[in-house]
Backbone:
């Protein structure tokens, strides 16, 4: 059987004496859109950073197409990273560069294309995320939060990734812009073979985009025998889950601490 595209085996992450991830086992198959949910601080962003090699686990293995990231040369790790697009929380645009230069940045760095080809790529992806042509000359400070996210997405897609990692893509956006970004995540996947991991605490986003949901619980509040993954299944299955911590998360404010 084909190896999963991404796999975490018995992964622990601690910062100092603080355990953040504990014994995480997870497989993500090619083409899936997996949403990772859980209250603030439970380690969702840490998990995303592990997948792209921005963080190393304290124990366990992270595999990409069966290859352990911890065993790879810098060169091989670099070639895997280039296949992974990341839409950071807050979009993380370069403030001193125009929208055009932000989208072109990675393409210039990683591909030997002439300027005409780069211009085509920038305009193609600007159109894909629904931004008008004249936004190319704008500076990030002139953009709304939703526009920034769209530029961040265009910048990631311009590198033609096989995997897209989204960190809170709709947090802080109004409901209309949330739906625009949710639709873009769906369209992005419909246009190309893409595996996506979407970290969010917005159930609206989960319901719209996820094939599968994974819910984490803070490691610091688990008993020794409990799994940190409270739920791994379909969005529909989430609604039927009996664990009160899951119910509270999906019914209430995701950021409110659940008392156990
Ligand atoms: N580099 C780091 N050094 C020390 N602690 C860190 C580091 N990165 C994350 N943490 C801590 O790990 C915990 C989990 O952080 P993480 O950002 O993954 O949470 P999250 O589930 O994504 O939360 P949120 O929904 O608020 O973004 C937090 O307590 C955070 O302070």
Residues:
């Amino acid at each position: 059987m084909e190896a999963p595209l991404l796999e975490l085996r018995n992964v622990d992450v601690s910062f100092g004496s603080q355990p953040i991830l504990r014994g995480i086992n997870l497989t993500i198959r090619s083409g899936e859109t997996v949403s990772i949910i859980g209250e603030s601080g439970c380690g969702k962003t840490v998990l995303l950073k592990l997948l792209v090699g921005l963080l190393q686990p304290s124990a366990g293995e992270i595999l990409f197409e069966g290859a352990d990231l911890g065993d790879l040369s810098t060169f091989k790790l670099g070639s895997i990273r280039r296949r992974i697009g990341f839409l950071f929380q807050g979009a993380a645009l370069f403030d001193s560069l125009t929208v055009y230069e932000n989208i072109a940045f990675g393409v210039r760095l990683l591909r030997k294309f002439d300027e005409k080809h780069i211009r085509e790529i920038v305009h193609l992806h600007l159109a894909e995320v629904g931004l008008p042509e004249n936004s190319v000359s704008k500076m990030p400070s002139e953009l709304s939060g939703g526009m920034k996210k769209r530029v961040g997405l265009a910048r990631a897609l311009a590198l033609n990734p096989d995997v897209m990692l989204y960190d809170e893509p709709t947090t802080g956006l109004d409901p209309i812009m949330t739906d625009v970004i949710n639709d873009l995540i769906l369209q992005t996947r419909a246009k190309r073979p893409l595996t996506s991991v979407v970290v969010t605490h917005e159930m609206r986003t989960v319901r719209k985009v996820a094939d599968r949901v994974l819910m984490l619980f803070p490691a610091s509040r688990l008993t020794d025998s409990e799994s940190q993954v409270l739920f791994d299944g379909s969005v529909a299955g989430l609604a039927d889950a009996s664990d009160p911590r899951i119910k509270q998360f999906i019914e209430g404010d995701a950021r409110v601490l659940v008392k156990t």
Summary: The radius of gyration is 19 Å. The first strand starts at residue 6 and ends at 15. The beta strands are 6-15, 18-28, 33-37, 59-64, 67-68, 84-87, 163-167, 195-199, 212-216, 229-233.
